[in-house]
Amino acid sequence: MDEVTQRDHVTCDVVIVGAGPAGLAAAIRLKQRAADISVIVVEKGAEPGAHSLSGMVMDPSALDTLVPDWRSDPDRPLTIEVTQDHFAFLTSGRAIPLPEKLFPPLMSNKGCFIGSLGTVVTYLAKKAEDLGVDIYPAIAATELLFDAAGRVTGIVTGDMGVNKDGTHSKNYTPGMELRARHTLLAEGARGSLSKIAIAHFGLDAQSGFQKFGTGLKEVWELPPGRVVPGRIAHTLGWPLDRKTGGGSFVYHGQGNLLTVGFVVHLDYQNPTLSPFDEFQRFKTHPSMRALLDGGRRIAYGARALTEGGWQAVPRLTFPGGALIGCAAGFMNVPRIKGSHNAIASGMQVADAIVADPDAVELTAWRDGWQDSPIGRDLFAVRNVKPLWSRHGLPTGVALGAADMWCHTLFGKSPFGTLRHDKPDWASLRPLAEVTPITYPKPDHVLTFDRLSSVFLSGTTHAENQPCHLKLADPAVPLARNLPLYGEPARLYCPAGVYEIAKLPDGTDSFVINAQNCVHCKTCDIKDPDQNITWTPPEGGGGPIYAGM
Amino acid sequence: MKKILVPIKMVLDANMRPRVKADGTGIDLSGMKLSINPFCEIAVEEAVRLKEKGLAEQVVAISIGPAKAQDSLRQALAMGADSARLIETDGPIEPLAVAKLIRMVVDEEKPELVILGKQAVDDDCNQTGQMLAALLDWPQATFASALRVEGTVVHVTREVDGGHQTLSLPLPAVVTTDLRLNEPRHCSLPNIMKARKKALDVTPVAACGVDTVPRLKVLGVKPPEPRKAGRRVADVSELVGDLRAAGAI
Question: MF terms per GO, please (chain A) (predicted)?
Answer without folding.
Answer: 4 iron, 4 sulfur cluster binding; electron-transferring-flavoprotein dehydrogenase activity; metal ion binding
